[in-house]
């Protein structure tokens, strides 16, 4: 069957055999957007976090059929070299990544957080940012989240999706 | 760290053709030498590992592009530790180019620039400190010589700025100079610059892979892709010690998307059109495994006990036996650490394409050479027919110091004649990990009349770390005696104590245990530095002063004293409980890098909360101070995770749990909100960075908890009673 | 082993309950007649209903501490997930970040329409079946529902009926269903309400 998806602002049609295929694999293997990571496949680590209609969603546990007609944003659509999202700019400024594998998931979760709480407190961060990072970059991430909030306040908020 | 080899004599190399580029030779043979023996000696005697690869041929290290940029082909892999950035800084400074002109890629094994050892042991920057700068300087001189010929002036009249060579009146870029030249004379190794003349070494340069990682570039093994690629899945056992008997694949063969099912002697694999089709078919296979015994956690704990297995004295000074015989005076304590999982976020896996005469393998691995040779063996190829293309690692931590899973992808690719990508599931990662072994420690000591330690003995019982690893040939074990991985951090570092001894007990466990970031350092330091704290309490002395009073007066002792003093000073050390918060102190020396940490802890809802960690470390020259700090921060948080949260169990013959969550790890909320890193430099070379800061954290927390609650926590993970 | 014990405990509780209900019934109503031989084999609609409502498939999402429970052992939800502001999790990491409108067999993440925690006042965790029943009928604690509405909620709401379609866990193992079939449960609930939703005194 074919499904129509809107990914990073572009309409995409994908042919799949199982409509319950996790969105993660459609994004990665059919649309070749590798920034969304597989970490556990059980919605536990958060490496596969992307946005669906602006909400943070763990795509390894999201059947692609539910994504039809919705707006999907991945790390590749969050921002780019020319126009980084405030979260990406903050991640660059604080030199957050080490191995880097979990970082897109954290950045997507953070971008969703800033949509809901533009200036999150440490407690807001602790509650909402519950992805897993093995390198232990949490310390710099926290600084980067606060910095992203500041950058976002200074600049015109980006409209996503 | 000097390479005990003669400077290379003039050699002529034929360089791959191509406009405006030199470098990255396609060489059939190269100057790899088996330095394994010296490597072992180096590890054992000095805890330094000399670089075991080519140190003579700049053109397999550097590539000059048409845009006058330099590509460094690194034989060391980047797994987050920041090595690529430090190597780029070292190269840029001697090559006389800017950081913007530098990029770093992984050298594939066919390029000939291959590390005979591995990426591990916190050795990448230290082992390449001299060779890489010499290679870069040699490359610079080589291009200058060519420029002198082209520009018709003596080489001494040439100046280089950012990859542009000028005579004063005329100038040429490196790219212009190398264009079309296919034969190069390699000059004698030039003298290196003075440290003070470096522009990039010692500066907090942003990571060279920063942007790729922030914008989600497809740089990891799992992101590798090839046209026509199929997806593989391998049936793996969940039980400890299971041997494969056979499998019923009838149902799987009928599943949608299945291309082929292969049955080897040691595994069954499914090849399908998509990841989930491979996974679904795999799940329908009824595999038959035989496991002799249903192991339980209690069985493992019984095995790991000081006094069982084989013992080897790893350190002996004075006479501990006589002193510690006077039982009435002896203070004694036991400590334990659990089985630890690597839990790196990117699962192990590989993309393999095996053709008639060659195999190409894209994968995350810390052991390029070993993996290449293993795959070649299985395929019946010569090593040169297998090209390992290393990718960025989604975490290493020692998990990828043996990556035989590349074989499975290769075997499956060969079976279908197409590229096949095959990865572990998360459950398989947890159950087929090469775990950090559990440990048991017995410490004994006596205090002298001066209130200082008169004699101390540390016994550690551990599963294997280095022993059994393919990196260590079998013959090394009798030479080494004790497992150097297991006893890492297990020696007594206070040389002022008159009598001290350390004994390593070896136990082989029924499941694989191996390298886990910092090896034995985490558990050994937890035990020793907690016990030192117990002794300080007993002696009614300040734990910092107690340590300082028992450090010997030599270079090593001086460096240890300095980090202890620096950490205490920066943290505003206090031995009192203030505002229901207490400080805890611990120090360690790992691979010649001393590190001291002060933690600030409170108890909230009967849980230990770490608010602040002050870390003083002396890694010698910090090539990139920002990334040294990042390693300290990361190691502290990983150490909090391992010492306060993580634990694998053995239940009904299986390692459990098999997923994040039940395998509890530190999350954002558990990370200290303040981490203050002080870097000292009391050594003239770059030393180990990635592992040493994992040492003190567990003991520092336990010591703070004791001060706060009176509870002495002697088992990791640290939980209040 | 653990399951067996739970089963015996439930059986024991049911039998004790039967006596209580039987006595209450005889006093309060003419048409419930219970003969001694029925005790071992039959249970009242209330008993049937409560064997379901006290099962972890139901209680896990009616916590008394704002923390959802997971699994047959009812452990606290991993990663510190909690009720949040509107029973839907935290501001940006909501229940629906992971839980969709149906179970997901690939990840083992359960799902159903309106996946969320029961409101705080509807906590059942730690309550006995009498207390649960009282809570269920108390408009202050049942979302202002009339008994009729509560009956419909208990027998028709998809999130409630998810208990009989709980899917597989992260290891691919089917979750335990309540110890009564959906049909018998619905019948029992309807009967109990039809009979005047009388709460036995135990």
What report would you give on this structure?
The complex is a heterotrimer of chains A (161), B (721) and C (202). Chain A is of the alpha+beta class and 161 residues long. Chain A is 36% helix and 14% strand. Chain A has two domains: 2-77, Beta-grasp domain (Ubiquitin-like (UB roll), Roll); 79-154, [2Fe-2S]-binding domain (DNA polymerase, domain 1, Orthogonal Bundle), CATH 1.10.150.120. Chain A is built from six helices and five strands, in the order E-E-H-E-E-E-H-H-H-H-H. A five-stranded mixed β-sheet of chain A has the order 2-1-5-3-4, sandwiched between helices. By secondary structure, chain B is α+β, with helices and mostly antiparallel strands. Chain B folds into three domains: 12-209, Aldehyde oxidase/xanthine dehydrogenase, molybdopterin binding domain (Aldehyde Oxidoreductase, domain 4), CATH 3.30.365.10; 221-291 and 348-423, Aldehyde Oxidoreductase, domain 4; 304-341 and 434-709, 2-Layer Sandwich (Aldehyde Oxidoreductase, domain 4), CATH 3.30.365. Helix content of chain B is 27%, strand content 22%. A seven-stranded mixed β-sheet of chain B has the order 11-12-9-19-16-17-18. In chain B, strands 14-22-21-20-15 form a five-stranded mixed β-sheet. A four-stranded mixed β-sheet of chain B has the order 23-24-25-28. In chain B, strand 5 (159-161) and strand 6 (164-166) form a beta hairpin. The longest helix of chain B is centred in the first third of the chain and has 28 residues, at 124-151. Chain B is globular, with a radius of gyration of 27 Å. Chain C has helices spanning 2-28, 36-39, 45-53, 56-59, 129-137, 147-156, 158-161, 182-194, and strands at 69-70, 75-76. In chain C, strand 1 (69-70) and strand 2 (75-76) form a beta hairpin. Chains in contact: A-B, A-C, B-C. The interface between A and C is medium-sized, with 28 and 24 residues.
Radius of gyration of chain B: 27 Å
The neighbouring-strand order within the major sheet of chain C is: 1-2
DSSP summary, beta strand count of chain C: 2
Helix content of chain B: 25-40%
Q: Which structural class do you get from the secondary structure elements of chain C?
A: mainly alpha
Q: Termini of chain B, distance in Å?
A: 48 Å
- Biggest beta sheet attributes of chain B: 7 strands, mixed
Instruction: Give the SSE order of chain C as H and E letters.
Output: HHHHEEHHHH
């Amino acid at each position: 069957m074919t499904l129509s998806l809107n990914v990073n602002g572009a309409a995409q049609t994908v042919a799949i055999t199982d409509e319950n295929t996790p969105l993660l694999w459609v994004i990665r293997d059919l649309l070749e957007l590798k920034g969304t990571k597989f970490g556990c496949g059980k919605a536990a680590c958060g490496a596969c976090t992307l946005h669906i209609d602006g909400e943070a969603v763990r795509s390894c546990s999201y059947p692609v059929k539910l994504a039809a007609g919705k707006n999907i944003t991945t790390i590749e659509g969050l921002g780019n070299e020319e126009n980084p999202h405030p979260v990406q700019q903050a991640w660059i400024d604080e030199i957050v990544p080490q191995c880097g594998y979990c970082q897109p998931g954290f950045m997507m979760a953070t971008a969703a957080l800033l949509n809901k709480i533009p200036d999150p407190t440490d407690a807001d961060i602790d509650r909402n940012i519950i992805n897993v990072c093995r390198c232990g970059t949490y310390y710099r991430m926290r600084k980067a989240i606060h910095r992203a909030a500041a950058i976002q306040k200074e600049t015109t908020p980006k409209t996503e999706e | 760290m000097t390479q005990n080899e003669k400077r290379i004599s003039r050699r002529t190399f034929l360089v791959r053709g191509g406009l405006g580029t030199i470098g990255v030779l396609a060489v059939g043979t190269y100057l790899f030498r088996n330095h394994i023996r010296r490597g072992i000696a180096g590890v054992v005697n000095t805890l330094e590992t000399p670089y075991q690869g080519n140190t003579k041929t700049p053109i397999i290290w550097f590539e000059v592009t048409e845009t006058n940029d330099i590509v460094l082909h690194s034989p060391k892999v980047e797994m987050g530790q920041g090595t690529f950035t430090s190597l780029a800084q070292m190269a840029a400074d001697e090559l006389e180019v800017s950081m913007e002109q530098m990029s770093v890629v992984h050298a594939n094994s066919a390029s000939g620039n291959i590390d005979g050892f591995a990426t591990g042991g916190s050795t990448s920057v230290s082992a390449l400190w001299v060779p890489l700068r010499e290679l870069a300087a040699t490359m610079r001189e080589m291009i200058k010589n060519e420029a002198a010929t082209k520009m018709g002036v003596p080489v001494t009249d040439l100046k280089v700025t950012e990859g542009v060579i000028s005579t004063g009146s005329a100038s040429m870029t490196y790219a212009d100079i190398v264009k079309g030249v296919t034969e190069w004379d390699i000059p004698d190794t030039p003298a290196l610059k003075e440290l003070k003349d470096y522009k990039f070494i010692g500066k907090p340069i942003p990571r060279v892979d920063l942007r790729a990682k922030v914008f989600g570039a497809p740089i990891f093994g799992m992101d590798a892709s090839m046209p026509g690629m199929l997806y593989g899945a391998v049936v793996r056992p969940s039980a400890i010690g299971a041997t494969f008997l056979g499998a019923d694949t009838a149902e799987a063969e009928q599943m949608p998307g299945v291309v082929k099912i292969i049955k080897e002697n040691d595994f069954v694999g499914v090849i399908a059109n998509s990841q989930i089709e491979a996974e679904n078919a795999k799940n329908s296979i009824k595999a038959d495994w035989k496991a002799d015994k249903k192991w339980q956690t209690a069985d493992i704990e019984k095995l790991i006990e000081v006094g069982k297995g084989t013992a080897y004295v790893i350190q002996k000074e004075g006479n501990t036996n006589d002193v510690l015989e006077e039982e009435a005076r002896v203070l004694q304590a036991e400590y334990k650490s659990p089985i630890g999982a690597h839990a790196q976020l990117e699962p192990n896996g590989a993309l393999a394409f095996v053709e008639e005469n060659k195999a190409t393998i894209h994968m995350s691995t810390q052991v390029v050479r070993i993996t290449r040779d293993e795959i070649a063996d299985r395929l019946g190829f010569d090593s040169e027919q297998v090209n390992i293309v290393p990718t960025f690692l989604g975490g290493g931590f020692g998990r990828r110091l043996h990556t035989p899973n590349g074989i499975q992808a290769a075997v499956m690719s060969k079976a279908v004649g197409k590229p096949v990508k095959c990865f572990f599931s998360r459950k398989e990662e947890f159950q087929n990990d090469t775990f950090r072994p559990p440990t048991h420690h017995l410490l004994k000591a006596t205090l002298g009349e001066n209130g200082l330690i008169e004699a101390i003995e540390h016994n550690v019982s551990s599963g294997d770390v280095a022993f059994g690893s393919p990196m260590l040939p079998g013959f090394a074990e009798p030479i080494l005696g004790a497992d150097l991985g297991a006893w890492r951090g297990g020696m007594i570092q206070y040389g002022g104590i008159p009598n001290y001894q350390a004994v390593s007990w070896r136990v082989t466990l029924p499941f694989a245990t191996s390298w886990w970031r910092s090896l034995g350092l985490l558990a050994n330091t937890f035990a020793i530095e907690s016990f030192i704290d117990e002794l300080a309490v007993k002696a009614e002395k300040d734990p910092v002063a107690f340590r300082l009073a028992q450090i010997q007066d030599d270079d090593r002792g001086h460096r240890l004293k300095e980090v202890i003093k620096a950490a205490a000073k920066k943290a505003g050390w206090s031995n009192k409980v203030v505002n229901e918060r207490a400080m805890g102190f611990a120090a360690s020396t790992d691979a010649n890098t001393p590190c001291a940490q002060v933690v600030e802890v409170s108890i909230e809802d009967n849980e230990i909360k770490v608010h602040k960690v002050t870390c003083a470390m002396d890694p010698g020259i910090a090539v990139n101070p920002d990334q040294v700090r990042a390693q300290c921060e990361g190691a502290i948080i990983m150490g909090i995770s391992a010492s306060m949260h993580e634990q694998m169990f053995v239940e009904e013959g299986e390692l459990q749990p098999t997923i994040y969550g039940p395998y509890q790890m530190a999350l954002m909320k558990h990370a200290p909100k303040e981490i203050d890193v002080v870097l000292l430099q009391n050594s003239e070379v770059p030393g180990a960075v990635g592992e040493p800061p994992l040492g003190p954290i567990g003991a520092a927390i336990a010591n703070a908890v004791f001060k706060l609650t009176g509870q002495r926590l002697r088992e990791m993970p640290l939980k209040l009673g | 082993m653990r399951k067996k014990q739970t089963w015996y405990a439930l059986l024991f509780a049911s039998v004790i309950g039967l006596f209580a209900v039987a006595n209450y019934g005889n006093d309060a109503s003419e048409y419930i007649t219970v003969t001694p031989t029925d005790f071992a084999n039959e249970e009242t609609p209330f008993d049937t209903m409560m064997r379901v409502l006290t099962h972890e498939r139901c209680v896990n999402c009616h916590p008394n501490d704002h923390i959802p429970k997971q699994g047959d052992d009812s452990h606290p939800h991993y990663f510190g997930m909690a009720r949040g502001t509107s029973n839907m999790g935290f501001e940006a990491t909501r229940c629906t970040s992971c839980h969709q409108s149906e179970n997901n067999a690939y990840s083992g993440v359960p799902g159903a329409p309106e996946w969320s925690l029961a409101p705080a006042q509807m906590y059942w965790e730690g309550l006995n079946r009498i207390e649960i029943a009282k809570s269920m009928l108390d408009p202050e604690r049942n979302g202002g529902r009339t008994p009729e509405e509560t009956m419909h909620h208990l027998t028709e709401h998809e999130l409630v009926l998810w208990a009989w379609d709980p899917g597989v866990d992260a290891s691919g193992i089917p979750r335990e269903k309540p110890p009564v079939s959906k049909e018998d449960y619905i019948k029992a609930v309807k009967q109990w309400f039809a009979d005047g939703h009388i709460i036995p005194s135990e």
